[in-house]
Design a protein that fits this description.
It is a single chain. The protein is of the alpha+beta class and 291 residues long. It has helices at 2-19, 30-37, 41-53, 71-81, 84-100, 142-148, 153-159, 176-189, 226-229, 231-252, and strands spanning 57-59, 66-68, 103-110, 113-120, 135-137, 192-195, 202-210, 216-225. It has a 6-stranded antiparallel sheet, sandwiched between helices.
Length: 291
């Protein structure tokens, strides 16, 4: 048992060392890793040497700084290639980015954050970094709003306490009352918008992706610079593209539409009667409204 605990501790420490490189620290000295992990210098040096031998980190021969190696890339590629949402969405998102010239992104929820499964950039929305593998807040993004739509209000509050809704700009929704109202609008429209809520000068339109059970398991967004996305002029065009893309991925995952509703009485109009809005596969006509 003691041996198992020691092995587990070694694994946890190695993962802790690797984790410090993903938080805005591309290159680090041994002393930096010691400071960020709280591990001892000898332990840190030993772990870095082992990770280097396995290609998980590499050391610059001139500066002596450590950075991530190629092994994490191999693991990451294998992980996303086997993810069902990634398999269904990759080609479609790539074509969407090329056709619109904007960014096309797909994300899933991991705990209290969204996780980018894939990201393609069009010619009008270039980025200097890759979003794939990054995590972003749920409440401040169009993708996140779509993912939160699949959770009951009480579950949202448990996942994101009121003090867990930080403001990133003046436009960020920082209360559950505001978030509830926004998500109600997202449910009615069938898509979410984000206008400078996470970063100034950026905006997007996003739509939820469902699996065969009808649960929201991912979301897809069209994003770019505020002036290029231009929701005041292009909301209908871009929201329709996002909803259609989400529908296609959902169908690929086995979604066949909302459960059949009881027959509507003659003269009382139509409705799906399931309390979930139209949902992917039955998109509502996009509303022309300012986000």
């Amino acid at each position: 048992m003691a041996s198992d605990q020691g092995n587990n501790q070694s694994v946890e420490r190695a993962v802790a060392v690797l984790a410090v490189f993903q938080n805005g620290h591309p290159e680090l000295r041994v002393s930096d890793v010691v400071r960020l992990t709280g591990l001892g210098t000898s332990t840190t040096s030993r772990l870095l040497a082992t990770l280097e031998s396995l290609d998980y980190v590499e050391r610059d021969a001139v500066s002596g700084l450590y950075r991530l190696g190629t092994a994490p890339i191999t693991l990451g590629g294998a992980a996303v290639n086997h993810h069902p949402v990634h398999r269904e969405a990759r080609q479609l998102a790539q074509e969407l980015a090329a056709r619109l010239g904007l960014g096309a992104n797909v994300a899933v929820r991991q705990g209290a954050a969204l996780f980018y499964l894939l990201n393609f950039e069009g010619r009008l929305a270039p980025r200097s970094t890759v979003l794939t593998g990054q995590r972003k807040p749920l409440h401040a993004t169009g993708l996140g709003k779509c993912l939160l739509l699949g959770l009951a209000p009480q579950r949202r509050r448990e996942l994101l306490p009121e003090d867990g809704l930080p403001g990133y700009t003046q436009a960020t929704l920082t209360s559950h009352a505001a978030l509830d109202a926004e998500l109600a609008a997202v449910a009615r429209r069938g898509y979410a918008t984000e206008v400078e809520e996470l970063a100034h000068g950026r905006s997007c339109v996003a739509a939820p992706i469902r699996d065969r059970s009808g649960d929201i398991v991912a979301a897809i967004s069209i994003s770019g610079p505020l002036s290029t996305v231009a929701l005041d002029r292009r909301e209908e065009e871009l929201s329709r593209a996002a909803v259609e893309a989400a529908d296609s991925v959902s169908v690929g995952l086995g979604y066949v539409g909302p459960r059949a509703a009881p027959p509507a009485r003659t003269g009382h109009g139509s409705g799906n009667g399931n309390g979930h809005g139209n949902g992917p596969g039955h998109p509502r006509e996009p509303e022309r409204s300012r986000p």
